[in-house]
Every structure is written in structure tokens, then in C-alpha cells.
Amino acid sequence: MGIIKRKWTWQMPGKAVIRQVLAASGIIISIGLATLLIGLAEGGRLELERQYGMEGSRLFVIKNDSGYDALEDADLRILTEKMKEVRTVVPVYKADIMLESYKAKKLHTMFATSAEYRSIYNLELLYGRFITAHDHEKMSRITVIDAQSALALFGTVNAVGQQVRTVLAGEEIALTVAGVCRNPAATPVSYLKEEFENFCFIPDTLINRIAKDDHIDRIIIAVPDVLSDDEVESKINYYLKKENSPGGNYRIEGYRQLFTVEAFFEDYGYMLAAIFLIALLGGITTLSSVLLIWKENNRKRIGLQKFYGASKSDIRWEVILKSIRISIMCGMAGVILGYTGGIATGFFLGVSMVLTFPMLAAGFFVAVAAGVAAGIFPAIQSGAVDEYDVIFEA
Are the C-beta atoms of 307 and 391 separated by less than 8 Å? Predict the structure, then answer.
């Protein structure tokens, strides 16, 4: 006698299916956790690309560790002219200066740099603006200070428009406060991290005009991903030593991804992987147990199916497909849970949650694989049900 083939139609899951999905909650947790972490990391990466306009780039920080020799303007020109692969160059001059207002005076760490510095460190402005290309070109006498400094110097955080006086290369100058940054400067979507208090920024062209003998503390460059780390470091060392300082000892640090995300995975990556695997294995084991219970509760139906012509293979495939269906439902619930949790977490971290097609495809693949793994043993057991024993039991 032939088997009556049923047409596949979508039906709302019944209470039994919902109970089975909840029983396999480990699959929900594992896929939800993976969705949350990968979605936040992808959101942070896209945020960096949006801010910097440097898609496919990574950063290298260059310092000179030769002792008395610091980086010079000549090094900056060499990197700009000789290394055609360099997309962005950000010089950073660093010095300790005294800022004095009508109310107080305070020692500050001064950074003379360009407009791109804000994007690299993702400085959060509370009031006003950061250094612009116009300030760079016109050598504007402006400064951007941190919130604690603004409070100490002026008694208010909103110090935009106020003036401070300082001395650069023996010349006393007045600087207008153009903006106020939040403390601390580093955030979860920073390429690099800078830990300091009482800091201020001025255009690097201003310090070049006033303090011509000042040295560069470090140079930050953006290089496309087509070059390996070794290639980039070899080229930097080659050009700097050949053209400028043969005896120089240059320290080059590369950054491929978000600093804080990288540090987070270094600290907790193994723990998160263990949680993912334990939750997934727990979900597979629980779903397998649920299917074994389902097999015992449906022995009579399985026996009758085999009596009327269904083969062991037909029964096994029915159980495996049932397992896959439940696992996919768990995967869908996990993606929804992870996405919702990612939005909430990203709101507090300042990182957008991104859900991409490869992530959904990977989640679907994991769910199907988990469903197959959970259904194999119950399928074998269901296929082994003897139809005559079931009939005689009835």
C-alpha cells in the first residue's frame, strides 16, 4: 500500500510545539548571544567607516624610540610623498603647557593635531566644535579643552567663547575655547585609546608657526587592507631610515579593529565561546530528549504508519524534519532576542546594532545543524518501532 503524501503548509505552532521550543532554549540562548556580539561588532565597524570615510583601511601609529631623536616634520613629508598607499596622515605634537583664565591656572597636556584626530579617538563634544580644516589652514588661535578643565578654569562646563592664555616657545598667546570634550576621551567605537586628564587641543599648523623646533610625538596613518602588516612596517622603516634617519629606531603599532572590542574578546572570548557551546549542546541534548518523549507518546501512530507502508527511512526523516523545524524556530527566536538585546546594549555603549544577511544565513545553518544533531538518535529509535508490537499492545 502506498504512502499518502501530505502537502507542506504553514500552520501556527501548537502548545506542544511551543513547549518543545522552550525546552530547547539552549539553542535560543546560543544563537541570541552570537547575534548580539557579532551585530554589535559589525555596527561598530560600520560606525568607524562612516566617521572616518576610510573603508578598508587600518591604522598604524609611528613613534621614534631612539631616545633623544623624535619624529620631525621631514618624517611627515616623507610618509606623505613616498608612501602612495597612505590615505590619511595625522601628526600629533604633545607638550605640557599652562593654561590661565581670569579665574585660575592649570597645567595641561597639549595635543597639536588635525581635524582627523577627533574621528580616530571618537572624542565626544559636549559644547562647541573641534578643530576644522579651516582652522588648520588659517592657523586659528583656538583650543578645545576637556570638561574638567572647563569647570576648573571658568566654573562652568560650557566655556565656549572664553579665552585662556598660555606660552608657546616663549611667546605669550591668547586662545579662544572653541569646544569642550567629555572625560574620558575613549569610547567603545574608538580605533585607539588615550587616557589623560586636563588636556587641550590646538591646530598643528599653529604650533608649527610659533614653535618651529617642536618635535612630533607620533604620526598616525591610514593604510588600505591590500598591504599586510609586515609590508607596511617594512615600507615605513625603509623610507624613514633611508631618507631621514638611518640610525632611527621606529616603533610601529597596527590597529585592525575596534580597540575596546578587541580587548573585550581577548579578555572574555574563551568564556563567551564556552557559553555558546555549552548552551548549544544543552539545547541539542534537551531537544533530543523531547523528541524521545514524543516518540514514546506517538508509538501507536508510528506503528500504524509502518503497518500501512511507511518505511524506516520515512519515519526517520519525519523525526529529523520535525527536529529541524523546532530548531529553526529556536534560531528565529534567538535572532530576535539577540537583536533586541543588541539594540538595548548598543544604546548604552553608543554603538548601533547591525543585522546582515550573512549573520542570518549563519544562524539558519547553525539551527539546521543543531536540529539534525538533535534528531538523529530519536529518528533511529522511532524508525526501530515494531508495528506488530504496537498493534498487539493496542
Answer: yes
Measured distance CA(109)–CA(145) in Å, rounded: 10
The mean predicted confidence, pLDDT, of the chain is 78
CA distance 201 to 110: 6
- What region, left, alpha or beta, does residue 75 occupy, with left being phi > 0 and alpha being psi -120 to 50 degrees? alpha
Q: One-letter amino acid identity for 138?
A: K
Look at strands 142-146 and 171-181 and give their pairing.
parallel
Q: For residue 324, give every residue at least 6 positions away whose Cβ sits within 8 Å of its Cβ, in sequence order, or none.
A: 367, 368, 371, 372, 375
Q: What is the pLDDT of residues 108-118, one digit of tens each?
A: 888 888 888 88
Classify residue 86 as left (phi > 0), alpha (psi -120 to 50) or beta: beta
Helices (H), the chain: 15-23, 25-52, 73-82, 116-121, 133-138, 147-154, 204-210, 229-243, 259-297, 299-307, 312-349, 357-383, 387-393
Asked whether the CA dihedral 348, 350, 356, 358 is positive or negative, the reply is negative
Over residues 311-321, mean pLDDT: 87
Rounded Cα gap, residues 129 and 177, in angstroms:
9
Tens digit of each residue's pLDDT (9 = 90 or more) over 329-342: 888 888 898 888 88
Query: What are residue 92's DSSP bridge partners?
Result: 218
Residue 135 pLDDT > 70, yes or no? yes
Give 73-97 pLDDT, tens digit per residue: 777 788 888 887 777 788 888 888 8
- Measured from the Cβ of residue 299, the count of other Cβ atoms closer than 10 Å reads 17
Antiparallel, parallel or unpaired: β 88-100 and 105-113: antiparallel
> 207-252: per-residue pLDDT in tens?
765 555 556 888 888 877 677 778 888 888 888 777 665 555 777 8
State the Cα–Cα distance between residues 17 and 325, nearest whole angstrom: 10
- CA dihedral sign of residues 367, 372, 373, 378: positive
**What span, in angstroms and rounded, lies between the C-alpha atoms of 198 and 98?**
10
Spatial distance between the Cα atoms of 91 and 226, rounded to a whole number of angstroms: 23
Predicted confidence at residue 350, as pLDDT, reads 67
State the distance between the two ends of the chain, measured CA to CA, in whole angstroms.
22
Indicate if the pLDDT at residue 28 is higher than 50.
yes
